[in-house]
Amino acid sequence: MMNPPASTIARAAVRVLAVWTAASLSGCMVGPDYVRPGTDVPAAYKELPPNKPAEPRDTAPRGNWWEVFGDPELNALEHRSRKPTRR
Question: Are 80 and 66 in contact (CB under 8 A)?
Answer without folding.
Answer: no
